Each structure stands twice: as C-alpha cells, then as structure tokens.
Amino acid sequence: MSGTQLHIHSGTAFLVALALAVIVLLHGWITHTRRRAIVSRLFGVFYGAWVVSMTLLPFEVAPPGSGVGLDPYWRESVNLVPLRTIRLYLESDLGRVAWENLLGNLLLLVPLGALGPWAWRKLDRWGRILGTGLCVSLGIEALQFSKRFIDALPTTRSVDIDDVILNTAGVALGYAVFVTVRALGRALRRLRREDG
After folding, report:
1. 41 and 81 fall within a common domain
2. Residue 146 confidence class, pLDDT cut points 50, 70, 90
3. Strand, coil or helix: what is 78?
C-alpha cells in the first residue's frame, strides 16, 4: 500500500479464502454439520477465490481524484456482438494466445458445472446450473467493466459477450461430465448388487 492506494493481488484472495475456510471448519465442528456440507462450503470458498484471482486480480484502488476511469479506447475492449471475438480468434494468426483465451474462458467455470451439483444439490438440474453459470459469468464481466473506474493499474480486461458464451458452455460441459459420471456410478452399483 502506498499513500492512499490499496493493492490487492491473487495471494490476498487465497489468504481471505483460508480465513473463511477456518471459519467454515469451526462452524461445522461447533454445529455438528455433516461432512458433505462442510466439504461443499470449502469447495465454494476456494473455488470462488480462484475465479476471483483469475478474472479480477491484480487490482489497485486509486486515490480519489486520480483521474482513473474510462480511457479513450474503452469501446475497443467491450464487445456486445455474440461470436465476434470467437470468430476473430479462430480466423487470426494469434495461435497460442487465441487458444489460451478461448480454452481459458471455456474451462473457467467447468468445475462449477461438474462439482456444483455435488456440493449444492439444488443445482442438479440443467436449467439451474446453466442459470447459475450465466449469472456468475455476467457478474464477472460486470465487475471487470466496473473495475475500470477505480483500478489504478494499467492492465484492464476486456468485457466480452463471447466470454459469457464460453463460460456458460463450460458450465454445460462440466454438468455433462457430472451427469455421465453419476450415471456410470449408478450402473456400476446396480451391477455389483446383481452380482453380489
């Protein structure tokens, strides 16, 4: 921290997650909460910290009156036209950068789709898990946009509807894995009961 600036980096997110994890464990121990509930809460805490560190950090709060806000080129880093950026990346010669961006956005919320329904049974429906993934992705994009108004660091992230599309597709991919693994597990249990 320098002057009135506050610098927040990925390590901060994980320190906060660690503190919350201790609170979750203590609360679970005191209230005799089931292990599954404690594990699901711990998953939520650490996964949330990881998503924040991947999408919003580093971050430095600028002092009031520092002139931080929308730079003249902000329109170039906001895309509201579906599939424009995806098409641009697929047709470009950016190679590894393009694939890292596309796959990174696709894979970011796969754990939510794959493990979310196990951790929170209310998410065990296609509509609910996709709606949750869509809301999380829209929230990330909104926070990335609003970050421009207070972040003093020169690194800004783009706000892109294609990120939302890829994130939500990742949730669907993760949930498909969850449904498949669950069906295989049930089939194996049935076979064992029939054999035994």
Report:
1. no
2. confident
3. strand
Residue 132, both tokens: 């949750």
Tally of CB atoms within 10 A around 155: 8
For 65-100, b where at least 16 C-beta lie within 10 A, e where not — what string?
A: eeebeeeeeeeeeebeeeeebbeebeeeeeeeebee
* Residues 169, 74 share a domain: yes
27, 46: one domain? yes
Residue 173 CB contacts under 8 Å (≥ 6 apart), including other chains: 106, 110, 113
Rounded CA separation 144/74 (Å): 12
Q: Could you report the per-residue pLDDT of 65-123, keeping only the tens digit for each?
A: 555 555 555 567 889 999 999 999 999 888 898 999 999 999 999 999 999 998 888 99
Domain that holds residue 157: 69-195
Question: pTM here?
Answer: 0.84
